[in-house]
Amino acid sequence: MKLAWLCVLVAALAGVAAGELPPPEASYKILMLLAVSPGSHKDIFVPLAEALAERGHKVVMLTNSPNVTNHPNIHEFDHGLPYFKLAAFNMFDFTKSLLGGYTIFPHILPNIARELYKLPKVKELYNKRKEFDLIVVDHSYNEVSYPFVHEMPFITINTVGVDPRQSAVYGNVLSPSYVPNLLFGYPMPMSAWQRFVNMLWHIGFAFYMRIWAVVPVVQKEISAQFPDLPPLLELDRNQSLTLVNTHFSMDVTVPLLPSQVDIGGIQCRPPKPLPQELESWITGAGPEGVIFFSVGSIARGNAMPAKSRDAFIEAFRRLPHRVIWKYEGDLEGLPENVMIRKWVPQQDILGHENVKLFISHCGLLSLHESVYHAKPLLVLPVFADQPRNSVFVKTSGIGLRLDWDDVSVEAIIDSITAITTNQTYKENIVKMSRQLRDQLTTPQDRAVFWTEYVIRHQGAPQLRSPAAQLSWVEFLMLDVLFFFHVALFITIYLMRRILKTVTAKMFNSSSSTKKKLE
Q: Is residue 364 within 8 Å of residue 390, measured between CB atoms?
């Protein structure tokens, strides 16, 4: 018996030495809340959920989309409310929106907050929330879920990468002098004007989301149902840790606290064998290779402006490459070198050696997968953080950017030709891919370790920076600066009075002496 335990111990130690996680101390119950989340956000949660489930933990996922995993340790259910079904929106309508589509949230979130806790399954889950060891919340626009986290340890997953709003909540205020705002970016180093505009967006976007337009309308609905619940923004500050969908090889390098763990690329994986039809199409393209074209899971191809769609069709007709186009619909008059499909295995296509270029909307997951599989990019940002991501693509030399207003047959052909004939783009993204893959531990293992760490240490309060509890007045030391300026003013005032008095006495004394001499 002792020999058996010794073997187990040796195996565990060998696993740790090899970089593998040690076995968990116990089987935990973990609740994941994605009540308001697009499908791409789920693509970040599922790898973590499956990794936790493989280690014997029980995971429950509350989502607003169909089930995607069959793991026996994962119980996933869609709450079914219709308000955040993004297929109902034409995301191309937001290409010129200053707020990148975030203007929909003041309209849809109050409806979700009003009805979510009236659903029998959600109500039952809420009443059993204290049976869980940890709650994991989607950081983006999910304050509607915060009644669950009251008096519970919880962490968040920040699917959009480095978000200055959330970082400030942790006490790590990121400077707008070099950290781009969530919606768009600038080439580095920024000019004085760009830093000024970026600062206004740092402050303005946080004010719009947290103070003015979004959280207040959610707070009103939540308070009506949970009158004793602390304010949502107060609950927001109780996060133990956040898993951030970023990696310094694919983003601006920023300082992170121990409670901010980077997991960028967690969904990336080696390619699996393709279906025979796709494999034959790609290998049959010869040395010219294949272009893969997708605008993601939220912006649907059939919602693309007709002018742009026709320009792509004609441009593809004139190019020597074959094209796989993810397009949700039928198209007439397609050239023979174009294949359209409503759904394709994106990573398996990007991982094929004969794919030469990825034409993308530049969503963050697509950017990470393109880097992981070392495929140069031609990006056409649509909404949200995509314009910011596209600036990174261009300035890093891993691809080119086209705006939808500039789409024409000639612009498409020129951009594709430039990328496929200039090896610099390929060399740059191969270099970046090596940097991304060169990690001591995988993003998935880091996410699992820190999730279990928070459970093992009952919320891990030791991870929290004291700065998170400071007000802006205290953090910026405005009170200290105020007293300093008051003291300085009083000192200058007294010095002036003393100097004036001394000067006056000296002048009077001089005048008296002069009169006596006369």
A: no
